[in-house]
């Protein structure tokens, strides 16, 4: 099964097990050298339509990639931001890899990498755009209001917080049972083992997220990403959440 999910350069089963029994920070430090060869990296088929949508929303002067990992989302920000892009992540290992793969050109915006907890961002309101890709499962539902308040605080008035969100798996489908099994195993692991490794796939629900963003002071709009297809009922498989700082 691992062979169908990971490239040959990816982590071994033993390495994944060690990561899973670590904290989030330590686990990603260990995984960082091979992270780009795993399915956990946001794929280009998601990044590309998000980049197109941001081009329509922009241009922007400064951008923030929240929980940037090895920098896949930073590549998107470089395309739509003119002056400055900043990647923030709690894992020093992920940031180290991101720095080594950074591409520098004469016309690129200035790039910064900052190690920090997304729940305590060390910035003034200096960003026009904040993005995040695939990181929200690392935050418990009770942590999201503070997370969204932090993003609101580092955006300029009128700044936008943008991220893709996939439609939930249809109840009874293979994807539904796979995600349910993963979350169940993770809950058992965290009940029996310390430190916790927080990663849940079924806790980031659109209706709840919209309400929490509104409470944090955002005006929230949704855009379909048609390149990622439709469900059998015609609804999009993935939407872009565009949350604009209202005050």
UniProtKB/TrEMBL annotation:
<dbReference type="GO" id="GO:0032259">
    <property type="term" value="P:methylation"/>
</dbReference>
<dbReference type="InterPro" id="IPR041698">
    <property type="entry name" value="Methyltransf_25"/>
</dbReference>
<keyword id="KW-0808">Transferase</keyword>
<dbReference type="GO" id="GO:0043770">
    <property type="term" value="F:demethylmenaquinone methyltransferase activity"/>
</dbReference>
<feature type="domain" description="Methyltransferase">
    <location>
        <begin position="64"/>
        <end position="159"/>
    </location>
</feature>
<protein>
    <submittedName>
        <fullName>Demethylmenaquinone methyltransferase</fullName>
        <ecNumber>2.1.1.163</ecNumber>
    </submittedName>
</protein>
<dbReference type="InterPro" id="IPR029063">
    <property type="entry name" value="SAM-dependent_MTases_sf"/>
</dbReference>
<dbReference type="Pfam" id="PF13649">
    <property type="entry name" value="Methyltransf_25"/>
</dbReference>
<keyword id="KW-0489">Methyltransferase</keyword>
């Amino acid at each position: 099964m691992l062979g169908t999910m990971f490239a040959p350069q990816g982590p071994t089963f033993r390495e994944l097990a060690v990561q899973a029994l670590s904290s989030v920070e330590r686990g990603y430090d260990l995984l960082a050298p091979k992270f780009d060869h795993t399915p956990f990296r946001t794929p280009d088929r998601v990044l590309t339509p998000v980049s197109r949508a941001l081009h329509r929303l922009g241009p922007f002067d400064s951008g923030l990639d929240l929980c940037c990992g090895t920098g896949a989302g930073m590549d998107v920000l470089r395309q739509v931001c003119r002056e400055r892009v900043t990647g923030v992540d709690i894992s020093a290992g992920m940031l180290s890899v991101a720095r080594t793969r950074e591409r520098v050109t004469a016309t690129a915006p200035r790039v910064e990498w900052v190690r920090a907890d997304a729940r305590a961002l060390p910035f003034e309101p200096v960003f026009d755009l904040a993005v995040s890709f695939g990181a929200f499962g690392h935050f418990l539902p009770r942590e999201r209001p503070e997370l969204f308040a932090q993003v609101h605080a580092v955006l300029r008035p009128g700044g936008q917080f943008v991220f893709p969100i996939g439609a939930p798996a249809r109840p009874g489908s293979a994807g539904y049972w796979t995600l349910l099994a993963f979350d169940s195993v993770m809950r058992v692991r965290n009940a029996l083992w310390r430190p916790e490794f927080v990663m849940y796939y079924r806790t980031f629900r659109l209706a709840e997220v919209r309400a929490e963003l509104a409470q944090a002071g955002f005006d929230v709009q949704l855009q379909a990403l048609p390149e990622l297809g439709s469900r059998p009922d015609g609804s999009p498989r993935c939407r872009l959440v565009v949350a604009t700082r209202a005050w």
